[in-house]
Amino acid sequence: MIVYLRIMRTKDDEKDSALFEATVKLVNEIGFASSSVSKIAREAGVSPATIYVYYKNKEDLLVSTYIAIKLDLSKALLRDFNDHLPIRDILRNVWFNMFEYISNNLEYYKFVEQFSNSPFSSLVDKQEVEQYFVPLVKVLQTGIEQKIIKNVNFDILTAFMYHPITVLANPGLCQDFELNAENIETAFTLAWDAIKL
Amino acid sequence: MIVYLRIMRTKDDEKDSALFEATVKLVNEIGFASSSVSKIAREAGVSPATIYVYYKNKEDLLVSTYIAIKLDLSKALLRDFNDHLPIRDILRNVWFNMFEYISNNLEYYKFVEQFSNSPFSSLVDKQEVEQYFVPLVKVLQTGIEQKIIKNVNFDILTAFMYHPITVLANPGLCQDFELNAENIETAFTLAWDAIKL
Amino acid sequence: MIVYLRIMRTKDDEKDSALFEATVKLVNEIGFASSSVSKIAREAGVSPATIYVYYKNKEDLLVSTYIAIKLDLSKALLRDFNDHLPIRDILRNVWFNMFEYISNNLEYYKFVEQFSNSPFSSLVDKQEVEQYFVPLVKVLQTGIEQKIIKNVNFDILTAFMYHPITVLANPGLCQDFELNAENIETAFTLAWDAIKL
Amino acid sequence: MIVYLRIMRTKDDEKDSALFEATVKLVNEIGFASSSVSKIAREAGVSPATIYVYYKNKEDLLVSTYIAIKLDLSKALLRDFNDHLPIRDILRNVWFNMFEYISNNLEYYKFVEQFSNSPFSSLVDKQEVEQYFVPLVKVLQTGIEQKIIKNVNFDILTAFMYHPITVLANPGLCQDFELNAENIETAFTLAWDAIKL
DNA sequence: AATGAATGAGATTTCATTCAT
DNA sequence: TATGAATGAAATCTCATTCAT
Question: Of the candidates A61, A106, C178, D171, which lies 20 to 30 Å from C172 by C-alpha distance?
Answer without folding.
Answer: D171
